[in-house]
Structure formats: C-alpha cells, structure tokens
Design a protein that fits this description.
Blueprint: E1 8-10, H1 12-18, E2 22-25, H2 32-43, E3 47-53, H3 57-65, E4 69-80, E5 93-96, H4 102-112, H5 128-144, E6 151-157, E7 160-169, E8 174-182, H6 191-205, E9 210-216, H7 220-228, E10 232-243
Parallel strand pairs: 2-3, 8-9
Antiparallel strand pairs: 1-2, 3-10, 4-9, 4-10, 5-6, 6-7, 7-8
Bound molecules: coenzyme A.
Length: 245
C-alpha cells in the first residue's frame, strides 16, 4: 500500500494548483472524522479530499451524513511475483526512460489523461483544465525526482513512444504501478501488455514480492490485461470530496 500521512493535513500541491485551501485525509475513519471537520473549519479549508476503505461502511455513512460526495471507486490490483513471471513479449521494446524522452512523455500524459475521470475531474467545482494538468505535472516530477518515481518505463513504437508506466517502490516487499498510459493510436496493439509484463520483471528484479496498481472500478480497459496476466483484486476504496462553503 502506498504510504500516506496520518490524520488530516493541508495539501500544498492541491492548494497551489487550484488556488483554494485544500486538506486531505489519507484513510478516513469514524474516529478521525470529527477532528478532520473541526480542523477544516478552524483552518478555513474550502475542500477536503478523503479516501475511505470500502469495508468501512459506518464511516462511509457518517461521511454521507456530513455532506461528503463520492467522486470515485478504486480497486487495488496485485500480482504475486514469487512464482514464474509472464515472458516479456519479443515484439515490443520496453526500456527505462532517458532524459531525451521527457518532452514526449509529457505530451503523452497530456493526451492520454485529457478529461480523464479522476476524482478531480469528477468534481464539477474544480476547473477541468487544471485537473488535466495533474498527470502532466506527475509525469514531469516522475522524470525529475526519485522521490516521486523509482523508474519510468517507456514502450518504443516505430520511432516514437507508445506508452509509459510510472513505477514506485512502496516498501522492500512491494512495488506499485502509479500511472499507466498508452497513446490513443497504439491502444489494443500489445503495448499495454508489454508494459505490464516489464513492470513485473522490474519489480521482481528489485526484490519485491508483490506489485500493485490502483485502478478506477469504472475503468475497465486498464483492468483486463493485468487480470489476464494473473493480477487479482486486493482491496477497494472510495474517494470523497467535501466542500465547506
Ligand atoms: C488504460 C490503457 C493503458 C489500456 O491500454 P490499451 O492498449 O487500451 O489496453 P489493452 O489493449 O491491453 O486492453 C484493453 C482491454 O479493455 C477493453 N476495453 C477498452 N476500452 C474499453 C471500454 N471503454 N469498456 C470496456 N472495455 C474496454 C479492450 O477491448 C481490451 O480488452 P480485451 O483485451 O479483452 O479485448 C489505455 O486505455 C490508456 O492509456 N487510457 C488512458 C489513461 C488511463 O486510463 N490510465 C490508467 C489509469 S493510471
């Protein structure tokens, strides 16, 4: 599981992007909820974003009663890396990104995630063009900082890039596909499968026993290929937003 700060906290990156006061709760519980609401009122927060495990039904109901709106339902898919891994497809070259790929990766991020149904895009009160910048910014930071990504893999397709994966180690045992993208005209051609398989090999080579990926329950296209390659659901969670005005 990706590491999260405990409790409620102000989100500098969201505040800078949207120009309002934004707070977050990594994992909401009934115990944290009253404190989080008090904190937001005391700090003059406009928007609180909070994730809540699907199993926390009473917390979900308490959040609904407090005026939170559901923005997305997420699934964690995971693959066990301790057995034999699927073979890397011969037909596709996947490799770690180089600095001269950076501009193309940012272009891919912009085109693949324009209007993407993230919890940001699902919130009608947030500016859609600013939501579109999130994945471009993430790709930029992933290329520039080992704190954001441990690797960015790219797939080569006839002299250009067909897709990229942002990879992160969650712990010594677990690696994570943080972002997966295949450019529109290369979808359905095996680029995605090649990136999934290479990400499994990359994680196993780094000593991980498991690789995970967070996917939206509604995004069927991202789930099918990993599931065919042995990835299975691990847990589900919801992302809620609450506005304070
Ligand atoms: C998600 C993504 C990487 C998948 O790449 P892809 O090349 O389309 O994937 P594949 O060809 O391996 O498989 C797609 C599967 O989903 C199916 N599919 C595609 N769109 C679908 C839709 N809207 N509804 C249902 N199924 C769909 C395809 O038929 C295929 O299934 P099949 O293999 O059983 O025939 C690509 O669509 C993408 O970049 N999307 C935008 C960014 C994104 O959503 N990223 C994931 C979150 S980080």
């Amino acid at each position: 599981m990706r590491p999260e700060p405990a409790g409620v906290y102000r989100s500098a990156i969201d505040e800078e992007r949207f120009g309002i006061r934004v707070a977050r709760v990594g994992w909401m519980t009934r115990e944290i909820l009253p404190e989080a609401l008090r904190y937001c009122r005391d700090e003059g927060v406009s928007l609180l974003m909070a994730k809540c495990m699907g199993t926390e039904r009473r917390t979900v109901h308490a959040m609904e009663q407090a005026g939170f709106l559901l923005m997305e339902t997420m699934l964690c898919l995971a693959a066990d890396l301790r057995g034999p891994l699927p073979a890397k497809p011969d037909s596709m070259r996947v490799r770690p990104f180089r600095s001269d790929d950076r501009a193309e990766i940012l272009r891919l991020a912009a085109s693949c995630f324009r209007g993407y149904e993230s919890h940001y895009h699902a919130d009608e009160r947030l500016d859609g063009s600013k939501c579109d910048e999130i994945q471009v910014d993430w790709a930029r930071r992933a290329c520039d900082s080992r704190e954001v990504a441990d690797e960015v893999l790219v797939a080569e397709c006839e002299g250009s890039l067909g897709g990229y994966f942002i990879l992160k180690r969650n712990s010594s045992e677990e690696a994570d596909v943080a972002v997966a993208a295949v450019v529109q005209d290369q979808r359905g051609t095996g680029v995605y499968e090649a990136l999934v398989v290479h990400s499994m090999h990359w994680a196993a080579a780094g000593g991980a026993k498991r690789i995970t990926g967070l996917v939206q329950a509604t995004n069927v296209a991202v789930q099918r290929t990993p599931m065919k390659l042995g990835w299975v659901p691990r847990y589900a969670y919801f992302t809620f937003h609450k506005w304070f005005d």
